[in-house]
Structure formats: structure tokens, C-alpha cells
């Protein structure tokens, strides 16, 4: 049987046109996973109990006599008991952090074995600082802490019996743990005897009353009301041809997390579904199966499903018009989450994880911005990417030779299409031994890199985690000598199949692997003279794929859960963080091979909470269909709100051959994604933009130019994200958190704080669309300047959506900096002049920001950057547009505590930009033609095209003032006065 399986997977290694699509049924549903079944049936039992009128009560309670206040009172510990197993000890540890986040940990104490408790140490940036002032007080029925401003006070109570944790604000429940009594931490136990069902029911003969027949009744074991009456997959379970042995026995964890006053939940990426998570439970549930978090390589995934995908972030936002809170569950094992809305205004979620301690962070909000900063404080903000990585990336599986790369680059230049990065997929390598060149087709890799770099571009090369098991591969040979590979359940080297055939996987949980692995990237050679990737350069960055890990002959295409990692942990304990360790080490390796360090770019497919500190992610193998194009948008938004701002989906779809209209629309989606890369499967036809026929080619060229012209906006948004933790792309509920009708909208979004509102078209044949404006504000069509009016209640406006112009509005009140000279790559724009587009608000004002630095070094950490503010203010007779440095606003630290340099406008980088002009100022929405426009004493020439004013209620093309060459510079302070 096993040889059949291997043979089937060998097929995968053949040219993929022979591959049969893997179906959804190749991945588990909840009822095919024993611990999920156990958790979900527990919830069913509880629900039945309640509907039958009996009260369901959690067996867990906190023993008040054991409570100890620690760390000055901001933390307490205490013993938890379960009435089911009174002899088992659980310890509860609850802390208040300095920013009001509450951490609840529970673990079994003095148990037979140990639960994995290190997920947080990988996810968190550092150990959080506890609150110096919030103190727990122990009462008769609960432990309680109250903190925060009077009007927005948070109260957290931990009730003794049953054990319930409640976070309230202004007397209203915000988050409740175990309110439904589904908390269950399966304790470690001895395996009594194979196949013995310890909970077996017994027949008991009842004594009959006189004249009646004696009856047999089944007496259930005492714990059956809670745990059921049969053991289910506690020590072993089989699925398809696989047997998962569980030497540690059961240790799953169930917990209900409810949001009684929040009707919308978002997050827990990654799933292909709507942003506002549809229900999986309750009447009329949208999905049948819970959301699954288990990093897997799902081939041809469905465009609407709760199936797990490549990455997992156990963070959920709960939102209502008056409150946003979030919960981060730091667990690394497979996890399933049911979502239900018992009423329109409330949400119940039920989390079931296979192993690990309970480690839950309650983020009190109370608004989205605070939730973002609370989460970034915990897990870190996104890293500031190299500027070039916000340009356009051209990838395919594969560019087949060094000359192929050269000719692709040439074609881009001949067609005047901007591009920053060319990518090499796995076929560059000899027999899929990554970092070793296939010299037949790639005889001169360093020359190729240099040719690309000579035209101010970069390359990204793939390095996967599977290591071909052959001793002529130095990475394998050394890895084996150093004993760094993951082991199978028998204790020998784990072997699995991937692109490289028989492969091994480095165990990055083993700290001995880190320095060694990083040294492999040294292109100047290693100190010890051993092999390193010398045929590489500092302009090469890295793509980490298949790091879930993807294993073709493994269960659900991944690693057997009973494989063993460093420290004796089973793979099941660490599965969801495994891929993040790979990108963590890779990003350090890429950074450390340059002197002085340059910012690394690493793209990862697998990720976990905290991965935003290491690189970008993409949504994996999407299909070239309209449906997949559409779902990519909420997927990117969902990743953004969960910290992974640098996100994108393969433009064009990985599989299939998108028709030109679809591809053209997809370029617009990509141009408005934080990470913008076109990619295609090896079997697809070539589809680089220059191959498109007209008019598509010209439209795509313009879309790419639009992306490049707005790079200042994107880079500024990324900088803001690194400082505040706010996402780079923002859905309605984030920008307008009080506007209820916008809460479920996920097909339009804002770019940073720029005021750009985009709604990509994801259907064929569309010529116009509606955009929702959730506030009483004027919004301008980016291209025509047409002014639309929203309303406080929210309003749909109809906007043109021809193929040439993806729907894009500017929110009144914004000032957009752009660079409008078409260039072949972003590096060539460094000294290009700026255009400032001032979109006046209904009250006649506007503001905007611009962040610039050298785009690749860490000089910004020494204060070498430009950060400017632009402001427009109206009086009766004037509109005054001015700019100044934001030095005084520059915080000392980013939200995650990373120190920021003092900013002074006269730094070396800013000085080097002296002389870079503002070449155009455009003002939309003036009431009338200015009588004069001046900068200091100089009268400026201008063109005024009459139209609708920002102030008022009229719709139609807005008035437009254009001042060319105002004689202003981007790094200097100036004031332009429009006399009305
Ligand atoms: C799977 C990745 O998702 C895809 O993008 C890549 O092209 C193939 N692996 C081959 O490396």
C-alpha cells in the first residue's frame, strides 16, 4: 500500500501536466479528526443540555484558597480543579499588561507529561511588561481588577465557580471565556490497556415495584455528561492510509470565547472566505465545518471554505459600533474554531486545539486602532520593507535559464513596462538542491544577477525547506553531520517526498541550526572554508515556499504529527509555527550577508502570528478564475488585520490561463495590494504583460505606472504600519468603525491613511460599479475628479469602471504625494519630482503625509529619513497650503517598543534630497477661481478648470486648480496661498 502511495506521489514529481487535482476530501473535516470530534460533541452535549432545560455547568472552578498575588498585584496564580478529575491539578496564571491586555494561562501541574508552552515565545516580540498600577483584588466569588480612564473603565473578573473570565467595559461584557462551560483541558493519563474503553457504560438491573417488570437501565459513567461515554482516538487514530500514534495520549483543549455585544468577527487567517467571518454553527450556518488552523499545502483550494491553508494566525477581532476587542490564542497545534451568532449583535466562538497549554490574550480595544497597537505590542509590527519590494515583481514557474531572464528583462524595457524584481522558481537548481545551480541552463548566475542589477533591479530566488537526501549536496551532508534534521517517531532521520525526491527537513527548533544555516548564505565564503552559496550576490533576496511543511507523501500533504523535534516535542505541538521559524532564520541570513546590513526581503507561504517581523506572504496557489481573484481581496485584508500587512495574491492566478480581460483586471487588484507579484504555474502559457495584445497591454502598462506613481503613498503607509501597528490596507470597519452598514463590506478598502479608496473589479464585462461611502464626506474620482457625496448613514454611489480605470476614489480631506514620471524601475525614481494632489474636504481642509528614506539600509534607524506633513486650510478669502517636517511628532519608540531615532529634517538623507522639486500642485474642490496664487512673494501661474466645490452638496466634476512648477521643494517648508 505504502509503495502505491509513494508511486502516486512520484507522479507529482513528473511534469505537472500529468498531475490529477487533489480534492478537498484529501484534507480532514472536523469529524475526521478525533480531538475536533471530541470538542465539537462536547459543545453539542452542552447545547442539548441547555435546550432540555437542565443547566449545563462547567466542571472547572478556581480554588480561592490557593490564589497568590504576584508581581505587585498585577498577576495572580491559583489552582483550578475539575470536578470530573479532582486529583488533577491545573494552574491558572492571569496577568494585566501595562497597556491593559490581559493574559490568561492555564497548564496542568505535576502532570504525567508536559504540555508544549513555547508557542508564545516564538510569536511574541518580547516578554510583555506587566502593569505597574492595575492590581487584582480577591473577593468572595471572584478575583477582580479595574483599570483605565473613568469613562472607559475595564473590569476583568475571574469567577471562582464555575471558572469564568469576563472582560467588561462600562459594565458591558466584552469577552467571556468559558461562559458556555466548554472549557476542557484533557489531562495526561496512563494508557490502561489497549482497546479498553474506560468510560464503558454498565447495565444495572433496577428493582421493580410490585406488579411491574424489572427493567434494565444503562448507568452512564459519572463523567459521561461532559466527556461522552466512549473513548475516541485518545491514543491512536487512523485516517486514509495513515496512523497517527499518540504516545502522550489525549491533551486537547476546548474553550468557548464569546463576545456578547459584538455582532461581527474578523481574522483567524488564513481561509478563503469573506472578511466578516460567516457562521459555522447555529441555525442557517453558512459553513458546516469549523474554521481550521493547520498549515497545509491545499492544492487548488476552494474559493469559499473553512479549510485551512498555508498559514495560521489565531487572532480574532470582534466588532460593534461602540467597541472593538480582540483575542489572540497562542497555540501552535492544529486548531478548529466554530463561529455562531446567537443574535445579530452577539458572537459565540468555540476553539478546540490538539495540544499545548491554554495561553490567551484579551485585547480590550476599545477601537480598532487600539486593538492594532495592542497586538503589535505583543507580536511586533511589520518590518519596513526595502522600497524596491513595493514595486512590481515578475515571477513564473519557471524562467528557464539565465538568458531567459535576460530576455524577459529586455522585453520589459522594450515595451517600457516598469518592473523591479525577477524571480526564479525551483527549476534553477540542480535536481532541486536549492542554492546549487543547474549549470546547463544557468551557467552564469552571478553575471545574470549583475545584468539585472545593472538596470536597477533585483532578483528573488526560491529556497525551499526540503533538503535532498544525497551526500553530494553539502547542505544535506553537513546537516546530517551536525545532527540537525527532524526525526521520525522511531528516532531516526525523518524522510519524506517533495520536489527534490527523498528529502530531510532541518529542525529549526534546534538552536544549533541557526548560525550554521545562516552561514550557508554567505556569498563571500564561510570562515571555516566550508560550502556556502558563493554563486549569489547582495542583490539576491529569497522566497521560502513549501514550509508548512509540504510533504507529498505525508498525511494531508504534510509531516506526520508524531515526528520528533528538538527537545522531544512532537510535530503536532509545533506544526503551525514550524514554517515561521524558516522565514525567521532566512530573513536573518539574507540581512547578515551584506555589510553594512541591508533590509532583507523574504516571501513566505507559511506563517504564524509574528511572521510580519520577517517578511511578506502570499495566498498560495490560487486559480485563474474570477472567483479566486475576488476572494484574494478579503484574504489580503484578513491577513492585514492580523498583522501580516505585506500580503498579496498571485496576479493572474497560479493555475490556468486567464483571458486578457481577467488578467487586466487582476493587474489592478495587484497594483492595489501591498505585495504585487504576477506568478504562474509551469503548465500555463507565458503571460508577461508585454505579451498581451492591445488594448490590454497598454492598459496594464498604465496600471503598473499608476502603482509606481503611488509608491510614495504605499511606502508612507508601510512606515505608518511599522510605527503604529495599523494595517497597510484597511477595510471599512477599521476606517469608519461606527458606521454599521460598512462592517461586512470587504470588496473595497483604503490604502493606509492616504484617503485612497479602491474597489477592484472582479467580474467580467463590468463597466460601472457602486462604491460605499460610509460618512458624510465628499469623495473624488481619482481620474476624472468627479465629486461624490456620502452620508453619515452610508450611501452607495455609482462610479464608472471601464477596463482602463479601476475604480479609485480620494477621500475629501486628503493630500496625496505621487511621482508621475514613468520609469523602468523604482530605483530610478529616487530624485524624481513630486505631484501633490489636494482633495479638499467638505469643510475645505485637507492633510497628508510623506515618508521617504534610502529604501534599503537601516539608516532610518539613525534618523536618516524625510517625514513631512502637508496641510490645506480654508478661510473665507484664502486656501493656505503648507508643509513642514514632522520631527516633533516623531515618537521615540514604535508601538512595539522598537526605538526610533530622533528625527531632524536636516539629516544626511534629507539633505541629499535637497533640490527635489514639487513639480505640480493640484487642488480639487475650490469654490471659485483664485484671484492669485503665491508662494512667498512670487505670483505663480496656474490653470483653473471650473466645477463642483468641495463645500456644499453638489455632485459632478469638481473644480480643479493646477499649479505647475510652484518653485517648491519636497524637503523644505513652504506656504502656497490661494487668494479667492
Ligand atoms: C508551490 C508554490 O505555491 C508555487 O508558487 C510554486 O511555483 C511551486 N510551489 C513550485 O515551486
Structure summarized in a few sentences:
With 980 residues, this protein is of the alpha+beta class.
Topology:
Layout: H1 2-13, H2 34-51, E1 60-70, E2 75-82, E3 89-96, E4 102-109, H3 119-123, E5 137-138, E6 142-147, E7 154-159, E8 164-169, E9 172-177, E10 184-185, E11 202-205, E12 216-219, H4 224-227, E13 236-239, E14 242-245, E15 253-259, E16 264-267, E17 291-293, E18 315-320, E19 323-329, E20 335-340, E21 347-353, E22 358-363, H5 368-379, E23 393-394, H6 402-414, E24 421-424, E25 429-430, E26 433-437, H7 445-454, E27 458-462, E28 466-468, H8 474-481, E29 496-498, E30 501-505, H9 512-519, E31 540-544, H10 571-592, E32 602-604, E33 616-618, H11 626-641, E34 647-648, H12 660-671, E35 677-678, H13 696-709, H14 711-724, E36 729-730, H15 732-735, E37 749-751, E38 756-758, E39 768-773, E40 778-781, E41 786-789, E42 795-800, E43 808-811, E44 814-818, E45 834-839, E46 846-852, E47 866-874, E48 878-885, H16 908-912, E49 917-924, E50 932-935, E51 938-939, E52 943-945, E53 956-957, E54 960-969, E55 974-979
Helix pairs in contact: 6-7, 9-10, 12-13
Bound molecules: 1-deoxynojirimycin (NOJ).
State the CATH superfamily name of the domain at 34-187 and 249-379: glycosyl hydrolase (family 31)
What distance separates the N and C termini? Answer: 84 Å
Question: Could you name the ranges where pLDDT drops below 50 across 5 or more consecutive residues?
Answer: 1-22, 194-199
Give the amount of beta strand, in percent. Answer: 25-35%
- Name the CATH class of the domain at 34-187 and 249-379: Mainly Beta
What composes the largest sheet? 10 strands, antiparallel
Protein name: Alpha-glucosidase
Amino acid at each position: 500500500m505504502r509503495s502505491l502511495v509513494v508511486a502516486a506521489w512520484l507522479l507529482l514529481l513528473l511534469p505537472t501536466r500529468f498531475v490529477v487535482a487533489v480534492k478537498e476530501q484529501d484534507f480532514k473535516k472536523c469529524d475526521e479528526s478525533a480531538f475536533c470530534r471530541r470538542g465539537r460533541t462536547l459543545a453539542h452535549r452542552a447545547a442539548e443540555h441547555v435546550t432540555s432545560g437542565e443547566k449545563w455547568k462547567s466542571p472547572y472552578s478556581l480554588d480561592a484558597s490557593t490564589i497568590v498575588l504576584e508581581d505587585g498585584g498585577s498577576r495572580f496564580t491559583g489552582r483550578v480543579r475539575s470536578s470530573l478529575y479532582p486529583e488533577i491539578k491545573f494552574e491558572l496564571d492571569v496577568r494585566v499588561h501595562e497597556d491593559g491586555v490581559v493574559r490568561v494561562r492555564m497548564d496542568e501541574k505535576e502532570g504525567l507529561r508536559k504540555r508544549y508552552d513555547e508557542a508564545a515565545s516564538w510569536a511574541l516580540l518580547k516578554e510583555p511588561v506587566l502593569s505597574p498600577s492595575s492590581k487584582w483584588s480577591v473577593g468572595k466569588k471572584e478575583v477582580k481588577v479595574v483599570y483605565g480612564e473613568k469613562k472607559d473603565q475595564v473590569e476583568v473578573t475571574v469567577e471562582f465557580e464555575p471558572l469564568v473570565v469576563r472582560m467588561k467595559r462600562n459594565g458591558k461584557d466584552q469577552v467571556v471565556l468559558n461562559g458556555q462551560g466548554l472549557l476542557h483541558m484533557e489531562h495526561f493519563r496512563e494508557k490502561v490497556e489497549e482497546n479498553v474503553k474506560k468510560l464503558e457504560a454498565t447495565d444495572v438491573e433496577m428493582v421493580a415495584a410490585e406488579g411491574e417488570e424489572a427493567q434494565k437501565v444503562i448507568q452512564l459513567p459519572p463523567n459521561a455528561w461532559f466527556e461522552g461515554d466512549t473513548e475516541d482516538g485518545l491514543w491512536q487514530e487512523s485516517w486514509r492510509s495513515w496512523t497517527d500514534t499518540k504516545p502522550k495520549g489525549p491533551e486537547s483543549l476546548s474553550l468557548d470565547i464569546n463576545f456578547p455585544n459584538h455582532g461581527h468577527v474578523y481574522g483567524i487567517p488564513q481561509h478563503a472566505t469573506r472578511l466578516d467571518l460567516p457562521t459555522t454553527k447555529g441555525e442557517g450556518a453558512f459553513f458546516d465545518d469549523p474554521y481550521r488552523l493547520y498549515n497545509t499545502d491545499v492544492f487548488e483550494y476552494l474559493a469559499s471554505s473553512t479549510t485551512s491553508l498555508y498559514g495560521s494566525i489565531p487572532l480574532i477581532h470582534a466588532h460593534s459600533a461602540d467597541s472593538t476587542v480582540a483575542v489572540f490564542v497562542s497555540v501552535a497545534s492544529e486548531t478548529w474554531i466554530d463561529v455562531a451568532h446567537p443574535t445579530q449583535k452577539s458572537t459565540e466562538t468555540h476553539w478546540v486545539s490538539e495540544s499545548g497549554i491554554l495561553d490567551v490574550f484579551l485585547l480590550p480595544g476599545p477601537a480598532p486602532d487600539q486593538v492594532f497597537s495592542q497586538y503589535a505590542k505583543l507580536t511586533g509590527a511589520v518590518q519596513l520593507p526595502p522600497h524596491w519590494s513595493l514595486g512590481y515583481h515578475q515571477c513564473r514557474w519557471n524562467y528557464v535559464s539565465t538568458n531567459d531572464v535576460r530576455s524577459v528583462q529586455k522585453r520589459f524595457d522594450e515595451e517600457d513596462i516598469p518592473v523591479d524584481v525577477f524571480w526564479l522558481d525551483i527549476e534553477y537548481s540542480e535536481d532541486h538542491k536549492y542554492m546549487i545551480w543547474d549549470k546547463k541552463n544557468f551557467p552564469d548566475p552571478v553575471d545574470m544577477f549583475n545584468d539585472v542589477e545593472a538596470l536597477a533591479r533585483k532578483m528573488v530566488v526560491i529556497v525551499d525547506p526540503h533538503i535532498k537526501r544525497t551526500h553530494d549536496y553539502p547542505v544535506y551532508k553537513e546537516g546530517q553531520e551536525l545532527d540537525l534534521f527532524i526525526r521520525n517517531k522511531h528516532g531516526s532521520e525523518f524522510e519524506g517526498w517533495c520536489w527534490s525526491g527523498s528529502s530531510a527537513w532541518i529542525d529549526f527548533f534546534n538552536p544549533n541550526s541557526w548560525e550554521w544555516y545562516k552561514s550557508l548564505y554567505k556569498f563571500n565564503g564561510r570562515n571555516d572554508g566550508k560550502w556556502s552559496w558563493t554563486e549569489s550576490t547582495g542583490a539576491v533576496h529569497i522566497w521560502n515556499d513549501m514550509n508548512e511543511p509540504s510533504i507529498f507523501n505525508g498525511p494531508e500533504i504534510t509531516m506526520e504529527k508524531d515526528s520528533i523535534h528538538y527537545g522531544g516535542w512532537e510535530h503536532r505541538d509545533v506544526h503551525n509555527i514550524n514554517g515561521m521559524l524558516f522565514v525567521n532564520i532566512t530573513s536573518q541570513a539574507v540581512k547578515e550577508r551584506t555589510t553594512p546590513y541591508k533590509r532583507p526581503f523574504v516571501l513566505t507561504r507559511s506563517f504564524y502570528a509574528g511572521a510580519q517581523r520577517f517578511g511578506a506572504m502570499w495566498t498560495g496557489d490560487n486559480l485563474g478564475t474570477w472567483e479566486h481573484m475576488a476572494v484574494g481581496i478579503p484574504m489580503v485584508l484578513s491577513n492585514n488585520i492580523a498583522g501580516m500587512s505585506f500580503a498579496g495574491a498571485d496576479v493572474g492566478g497560479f493555475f490556468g490561463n486567464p483571458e486578457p480581460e481577467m488578467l487586466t483586471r487582476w493587474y489592478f487588484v495587484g497594483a492595489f495590494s501591498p505585495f504585487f507579484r504576477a506568478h504562474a504555474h509551469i503548465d500555463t502559457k507565458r503571460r508577461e504583460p508585454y505579451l498581451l495584445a492591445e488594448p490590454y497591454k497598454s492598459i496594464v502598462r498604465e496600471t503598473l505606472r499608476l502603482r509606481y506613481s503611488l509608491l510614495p503613498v504605499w511606502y508612507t503607509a508601510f512606515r505608518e504600519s511599522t510605527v503604529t501597528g495599523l494595517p497597510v490596507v484597511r477595510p471599512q470597519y477599521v476606517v469608519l468603525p461606527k458606521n454599521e452598514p460598512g462592517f461586512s463590506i470587504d470588496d473595497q478598502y483604503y490604502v493606509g491613511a492616504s484617503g485612497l479608496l479602491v474597489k477592484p473589479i472582479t467580474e467580467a464585462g463590468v463597466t460601472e460599479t457602486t462604491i460605499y461611502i460610509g460618512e458624510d464626506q465628499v469623495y473624488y474620482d481619482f481620474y476624472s475628479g468627479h465629486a461624490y457625496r456620502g452620508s453619515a448613514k452610508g450611501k452607495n454611489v455609482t462610479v464608472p469602471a471601464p477596463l482602463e480605470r479601476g475604480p479609485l476614489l480620494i477621500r475629501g480631506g486628503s493630500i496625496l504625494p505621487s511621482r508621475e514620471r514613468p520609469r523602468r524601475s523604482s530605483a530610478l525614481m529616487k530624485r524624481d519630482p513630486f505631484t501633490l494632489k489636494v482633495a479638499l474636504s467638505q469643510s475645505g481642509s485637507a492633510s497628508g503625509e510623506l515618508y521617504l528614506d534610502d529604501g534599503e539600509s537601516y539608516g532610518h534607524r539613525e534618523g536618516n529619513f524625510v517625514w513631512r506633513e502637508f496641510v490645506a486650510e480654508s478661510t473665507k478669502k484664502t486656501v493656505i497650503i503648507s508643509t513642514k517636517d514632522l520631527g516633533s511628532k516623531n515618537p521615540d519608540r514604535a508601538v512595539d517598543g522598537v526605538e526610533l531615532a530622533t528625527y531632524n529634517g536636516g539629516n544626511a538623507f534629507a539633505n541629499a534630497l535637497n533640490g527635489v522639486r514639487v513639480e505640480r500642485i493640484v487642488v480639487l474642490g475650490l469654490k471659485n477661481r483664485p484671484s492669485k496664487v503665491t508662494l512667498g512673494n512670487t505670483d505663480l501661474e496656474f490653470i483653473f478648470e471650473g466645477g463642483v466645490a468641495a463645500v456644499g452638496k453638489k455632485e459632478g466634476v469638481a473644480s480643479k486648480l493646477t499649479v505647475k512648477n510652484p518653485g517648491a521643494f519636497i524637503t523644505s517648508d513652504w506656504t502656497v496661498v490661494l487668494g479667492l
